[in-house]
Amino acid sequence: MSEAREVNGAQKKAPMREVLAEAAFQLFLERGFERTTVDDIVARAGVGRRSFFRYFPSKEDAVFPDHESCLADMTAFLEAASDESDAVDVVCDAACLVLRVYSTNPEFSVQRYKLTREVPGLRTYELSVVRRYERMLAGYLRQRWVEATDGSLRAEVVAASVVAAHNNGLRSWLRSGGEGDAEDAVDRALRLVRRTWGEGGDGAAAPEPQQEDVVVMVATKGAPMWRVIQRVESALRDG
Amino acid sequence: MSEAREVNGAQKKAPMREVLAEAAFQLFLERGFERTTVDDIVARAGVGRRSFFRYFPSKEDAVFPDHESCLADMTAFLEAASDESDAVDVVCDAACLVLRVYSTNPEFSVQRYKLTREVPGLRTYELSVVRRYERMLAGYLRQRWVEATDGSLRAEVVAASVVAAHNNGLRSWLRSGGEGDAEDAVDRALRLVRRTWGEGGDGAAAPEPQQEDVVVMVATKGAPMWRVIQRVESALRDG
After folding, report:
1. CA of A233, closest CA in chain B: separation in Å?
2. Max Cα–Cα distance, chain A, nearest Å
3. Which residue in chain B is spatially nearest to A222 when comparing CA positions?
4. Would the keyword DNA-binding turn up in this protein's UniProt record (chains A, B) (predicted)?
5. Interface test with A, best of B133, B154, B161 (most A CBs within 10 A)
6. B219-233 per-position pLDDT tens digit
7. Is the pLDDT assigned to residue B210 strictly greater than 60?
8. So what CATH class is B2-59?
9. Does ipTM exceed 0.85?
10. Would the CB atoms of A217 and B216 count as touching at under 8 Å?
11. Cβ(B193)–Cβ(B186) under 8 Å?
């Protein structure tokens, strides 16, 4: 850090990590990701080579400098969540923390999106980051649904649904060039997940059978009333 | 290929690709993935270095030698699927093609699972393979649901659900050491997806309102029968 302060005397406020990430990203845009070396980056940032690796394990990490702190925020968010709240709502809200990383800096996010499309190594890196979020959400749901027979399966399926919906909303915003409201796009996408998997949703986790158990019955509009009632009765009986 | 035939005169029946994959895998188990070089692999297989790269772009590819042909099978399967069938059933069935790649060779699959847990590079590679399957399933669903307002979102969320359920079943089978029935484990996991997202499922894609529209009604087991019927009637009326 002392090195950072010396070299960046003129811009004391920007932390070294940010300075490096910015220098790296400018170079990736100018020369391409593959053709930029760590030496190029530290030269541009005006620091020593070891400084880079103090902050980033690899060149790829410098492209996504905010995910580690976002993962930490998500951990804290999930730990603080009340067991009273709908578990699916909690993970949807947690996913929105990721969105904020993108939406606070639209221009950078859109440029990075384009860069990531072009560099297979970055796409792979992004996949592994996304997977870490997904595992974290699944871990939370698994613990909330520990009593359910299919809790672990359901946790993984719902976490995957949340991530897919979040990314669908995020990507449509990125593809639009960062125009419009990112949170709105993601909220709309997550609505399908909340509606389907959330408590009171149609695919909600089934608790152990109780008097208050929920019965779902499906009928076609063309069905005669007697058949509908017959099926309601049998559903209420067999649960 | 002529090179392959010369060198493997004694075992003409094993195609060169298989011989290389087998040699590679044995070495990965013996020495570890990182410590095995392509030179080691070709030496063990008794062929020239270029032969390796003729079949596999990288060392990682040799660990998963069947995925390219499985992706091709899946493409053919989806292209041949009838538009009359439930789109969610089609993608669940397509996912089972992947399972078969694992279940036909339990011992190899279990060993590879353990190897993959230990080598971050292989996990990342696997993620990108899984992502290709997911994109293929999403592409099929998108085209089936092209008329629905939320078709593209739904396609991505359902594809992610299918992959998550498939992998949950597959992993539980792999963790058990390949004991028991893999297809059964995956079938059970996919049931949640079919039930939730399939036609007639609770979270099914909503077509434009029609006379045949499906009505879903939810009641608590404690509710009196008259209230249940009242709600069925109103649901049938208002859809």
Report:
1. 8
2. 83
3. B212
4. yes
5. B161
6. 665 665 555 655 666
7. no
8. mainly alpha
9. no
10. yes
11. no
> B196 touching A, CB under 8 A?
yes
Q: Which fold has domain A66-197?
A: Tetracycline Repressor; domain 2 (1.10.357)
Place of tokens 């990314």: A167
Name the CATH superfamily for A2-62: Homeodomain-like (1.10.10.60)
Q: What are B98's two structure tokens?
A: 């992947």
CB proximity B236 to A under 8 Å: yes
Instruction: Give all strands (DSSP E) within chain A, no chain letters.
Output: 214-220
Cβ neighbors of B34 (< 8 A, separation 6 or more) are: B119, B121
**Which token pair is A137?**
């959400």
List the domain boundaries for chain B: 2-59, 66-197, 209-239
Chain A touched by B51 (CB under 8 Å): no
List chain B residues with CB under 8 Å of A213. 220-221
Q: Which residues in A117-140 are b (16+ Cβ under 10 Å) and which e?
A: eebeebebbbeebbbebbebbbeb
- Among residues A194, A208, A34, A39, which one has the least CA distance to residue B157? A194
Which tokens hold the place of B140? Answer: 């099929």
